[in-house]
Specification:
4-stranded parallel β-sheet, alpha/beta, 4 strands
Length: 129
C-alpha cells in the first residue's frame, strides 16, 4: 500500500509551496516512491514547476510508479517532471543541499513489510547470559 492520495496532496502542498511567492521552481526528491502517489499528487499541488527525482530500492515499484506517471501524462493536461531511479533510501546518491524538498512514502502502511525496508539500527539479537 502507498500513502493515501489526500495525505500525499496535503504533504506536497505544504512542502512545495512553503517557500512563498518568491519561489519560482522546486527540486524535490522522493526517497521511497512506492506506487508513485506523491509524484502524482505533487503535480497537482505545485503552483510553479516541480522536478522530482524519485526512487525505490525495488525496481518493480519504480517501474510501476513510472508507468502511473506516464499514464497521467498521456491522459491529462498534467505533465509532472519526474525521473525515476533504483536506489537505497539509506544511502541516496545526491549532493548535500541538492534538493529543496525530500519526501518519503514510508513502507510501514499495509500488511506487507519487507526485510530490506527495515532500518539498520544495530544488532538486535539479545545475548544469552
Amino acid at each position: 500500500m502507498s500513502v493515501k492520495p489526500a495525505v500525499a496532496l496535503a504533504m506536497s502542498e505544504y512542502a512545495i509551496n512553503i517557500h512563498g511567492d518568491n519561489y519560482s521552481s522546486c527540486i524535490a526528491v522522493n526517497s521511497m516512491c512506492g506506487e508513485g502517489t506523491i509524484e502524482l499528487e505533487s503535480s497537482r499541488a505545485a503552483r510553479d514547476p516541480v522536478f522530482i527525482i524519485s526512487g525505490d530500492i525495488r525496481s518493480d515499484c519504480t517501474l510501476k510508479a513510472s508507468k502511473r506517471v506516464a499514464e497521467l501524462r498521456a491522459n491529462s493536461n498534467c505533465r509532472p517532471l519526474v525521473d525515476f531511479v533504483v536506489w537505497d533510501a539509506q544511502n541516496l546518491p545526491l549532493r548535500k543541499g541538492f534538493a529543496d524538498v525530500v519526501f518519503g512514502d514510508l513502507p510501514i502502511q499495509g500488511a506487507t513489510k519487507y526485510v530490506h525496508q527495515q532500518p539498520k539500527i544495530g544488532n538486535t539479537v539479545a545475548s544469552s547470559a
